Amino acid sequence: MANQTHISLPVSNEPVRRPLTRAAKWRMTSLITIHLLMLIHIAYWMVVGTTVSPVEPSEAMETLKTGAINAGFVFFAVSILATLIFGRFFCGWGCHMIAIQDLFGWFLKRIGIKPNPLRSRVLMLVPLGMAIYMFVLPVVYRWWVVWWDPARTSYNPEWTNAFITEGFWKTFPGWVFSVLTVVIAGFGIVYFLGNKGFCTYACPYGGVFAVVEKASPLRVRVSDSCIQSGECSKACGSNVRVAEEVLAYGMVVDPGCMKCADCISSCPTSALSFGFGSTAVLPKTRAEIPSDAKAPGLPLVEELILLAGFGFFLFAWWGLYGNFPFLLSTGMACMLAYVVLVLVRLFRGGNVSFQNLTLKENGAIRPIGRVFMVFAGLLVVASMHNAFVQYHRYMGNWHFGKTGAGDEVWEPNFDPQQHLRAIVKRERDIAFDHYSKQERWSLIDTAMVNRKLAWLNLLRGDDQAGEDAIRTAVRLAPEWPIVRYDLARFLSKRRAYDESIASFRKAIELKSSYHEAEHQLGLTMMAAQRFEEALTYFEDMIEHSHADAQAHYHAGAIALNLGRRTLARTHLEKAIELDPKLAPAREQLGLLLLTESKVNEAIEQLKIAVEIDASLVLAQYNLGVAYFMRRDFTNARIHAKIAADLNPTDKQAKDFLKMLDQQQTRQP
User: Fold this and answer.
1) What's the whole-number mean pLDDT along residues 176-185?
2) How far apart are CA 198 and CA 330, in angstroms?
3) Radius of gyration of the chain (CA)
4) Most buried among 20, 157, 318, 513, by the most CB within 10 A?
């Protein structure tokens, strides 16, 4: 065969109904079994409430982000290793998306349609780019953050066990977008881009497998009994030009080969088989493929149109209204980019077809071509509107992040004009303008935008507008814990404590281990002067989590306020033991020691408190009092002055400073 230099390889795109091969029957059985196991997995979770975490490669993102090792991460790692040895068997025999595409491909054949595969060199790089974005960049970013600032240890989490979960569905889209994904990634992409179109152009896992598969020694190989019938290429459901590749290399080197074995079963001379040997990394050429038998490629200008279209449509649809997931948006972007390419061809070419439809013939656009132009035009206009909305979302997010707003905005005396720097005010106003335009032009109101507008109104000093926005967010997403939490804080700020406590409780009900909400609930009880209830609440929290330093601190502060010194000391010392840098706990313990006239011990605690956080007004003031009690008037005045400067409206601190100045004047 090595001497054959010009062989005509029969290739046909006519839809031919072929009986299922033996391999196809086994593969169909495997895929059906996979789906049955998936249904059993979901049913078990729905009945029991807990189950093994999703066996889905995308779950590896959670492991790389948080260090929580789950079943999906292990499965993905094992699949990559298996692909390195045996090739893409998992894709062909165990992937549910393959089954969906095969089902729709079979349906199209039944109605006489065999979609021509799009053969784009540029779009074939999309899955690898997706894989890098999903699995590589987050890790590189974490390493870079820790290298730049070693103190940010949270970016380098410890490995934990997450094989069992209660929230089985939390990382998946809702049922509506799950169905849309099936329809678009199944029927849509198969019809638009050819069978296995999703795997070729929109699957990030396939992007990883395609690279690894090149090094696999197990490949479809050919013997000398090959007669170049071309039946293998016709039978391949992955659009691999099997006949060309075995002629050129003696084996299949295309990374799109999913080892379905249909080519092997269809060979009339049994010349094809699986075998171990050389890999597809820099394979040796055995014979020249005739130019008329090679798969036609796209001109460079059309590749550039596809690339530009893909980028535009991905921007327009990904994350739109907080709903369109990444994989679905990527598949849509590939499809719509091809639609635009066909639209461009209609304005340029003499004869244009779209799968089984002839849109333009001999320079004349046919009626179906006009229908296609209207269809494509509506999609482009809709996407342009989406892109406009998305632009304002991205820019709003960018400027919102630069405001650096923190918990100080919830303080009763917060004044944006006084407390915000000019640069923060500028970023606030730009973000507000972008979000307002997004809300005005959006077809669907979203909780996320309203939550951001609530914060920005808070930064503008318009608390009522902020509360109105967060109430809208709660109405749109009543099961979203964080908007319930934000509403509770708005209510607490205007002293509607009963409503605030109810909203905090709802947030905690929706999200277990919501520590921020749990602590704020107790603090709101304190603000409402329900001290006994607050103390009981924090002690209950401590009972469930002994290592909660904040809960011990709050319980100690309340006990001190109620005059229960022994209980207060127990909690405050425990808080400091758990978190030696918890300055407010040392501040309260210093106050307690002062009331017991243990001046030296009080000074020790208060000095550490102000060293950790010099902005603690009460700690600075009490440290001044403690030094005064020890007749150290110099240090007493230093800390009294700091307290007065930190809070110019504090009359007690000013009077204390004035008294110290008078005391110093009397001294000889």
Assistant:
1) 83
2) 9
3) 34
4) 318
Q: How far apart are CA 73 and CA 574, in angstroms?
A: 39
Buried b / exposed e across 231-243, counting CB within 10 Å, b at 16+?
A: bbbbbbbbbbbbb
Evaluate whether 94 touches 261 at the Cβ level (below 8 Å): no
Note the pLDDT of residue 110: 86
The one-letter amino acid code at 638 reads I
Record the tokens describing residue 544, joined without a space.
């469930």
The region, left, alpha or beta by phi > 0 then psi within -120 to 50, assigned to residue 257 is beta
Reduced to 3 states, what is the DSSP secondary structure of residue 500? helix
Q: What is the pLDDT of residues 18-32, one digit of tens each?
A: 566 677 888 999 999
Q: What are the beta bridge partners of residue 165?
A: 51
pLDDT for 529 equals 93
* Stretch (H or E) spanning 160: strand 160-161
Instruction: Indicate if the alpha-carbon torsion angle 571, 574, 578, 583 is positive or negative.
Output: positive
Q: What stretches of 349-494 show up as alpha helix (H) in DSSP?
A: 367-401, 416-419, 422-441, 447-460, 463-476, 481-493
Give me the amino acid identity at 465.
A
- If DSSP states are collapsed to H, E and C, what string results for 87-143? CCHHHHHHCHHHHHHHHHHHHHHHCCCCCCCCCCCCHHHHHHHHHHHHHHHHHHHHH
Tokens of 480: 């979203």
Per the CB < 8 A criterion, the answer to whether 69 and 160 are in contact is: yes
Report pLDDT for 150. 72
**What digits encode the pLDDT tens for the residues 143-175?**
887 777 776 666 677 788 999 988 888 887 777
| H or E element, residue 358 | strand 357-361
Residue-level pLDDT at 9? 46
Q: Are 606 and 612 in contact (CB under 8 A)?
A: no
| Angle, CA 651 vertex, CA 645 and CA 655 arms, to 5° | 90
The rounded distance, in Å, linking the Cα atoms of 248 and 271 is 15
The three state secondary structure string of 39-70 is HHHHHHHHHHCCEECCCCHHHHHHHHHHCEEC
Q: Would you say 451 and 470 are in contact if contact means Cβ atoms under 8 Å apart?
A: yes
Q: How far apart are CA 436 and CA 478, in angstroms?
A: 22
Closest to 389 (Cα-Cα) out of 473, 308, 320: 320
Residues 6+ apart with CB under 8 A from 106: none
Mean pLDDT confidence for 507-531? 91
